[in-house]
Design brief:
The protein is of the alpha+beta class. It is built from four helices and nine strands; from the N terminus they run E-H-E-E-E-H-E-E-H-H-E-E-E.
Length: 130
């Protein structure tokens, strides 16, 4: 990840996204996708690169950056969306269970999150909100 365009974000960004996630329907340990329009992108395909390109057609995939979070109280990482999807295993290697990221971009007044444009990462792939 050292050669990627990444930046640390204060925990206040994680808290904003966490508040949004808490407003969604949940089952015990993850978002209840049966109640949210979504697409599943498998990482177990013979052509993972082609599968990851499917994310480009979703709301989070149209964001140039994503914010990768670990929990509401910790700092987050903002990196190029394509890097985050390709290297999710490295980003989340010490964080078991479903993990969440949302769209982000730079604007003249700073970093703007697109919390509704989010994805859940958990093996065997990504579940992406539509």
């Amino acid at each position: 990840m050292a050669d990627h365009d990444c930046r640390r974000l204060e925990s206040s960004y994680s808290q904003v996204f966490h508040e949004y996630l808490e407003s969604l329907p949940w089952i015990p340990s993850k978002v209840d996708w049966s109640r949210i329009p979504h697409k599943f992108v498998s990482l177990e395909s013979d052509d993972t690169a082609a599968e990851l390109r499917l994310i480009d057609e979703t709301p989070i995939g149209r964001n140039p950056y994503v914010m990768v979070t670990f929990n509401a109280d910790d700092m987050a990482i903002m990196c190029r969306a394509e890097d985050a999807f390709r290297d999710a295993d490295s980003l989340y290697m010490r964080a078991p269970g479903p993990r969440y990221m949302c769209g982000a971009k730079f604007e003249s007044d700073g970093i703007v999150l697109s919390v509704e444009d989010f994805a859940e990462y958990d093996l065997p792939g990504f579940t992406v909100r539509l």
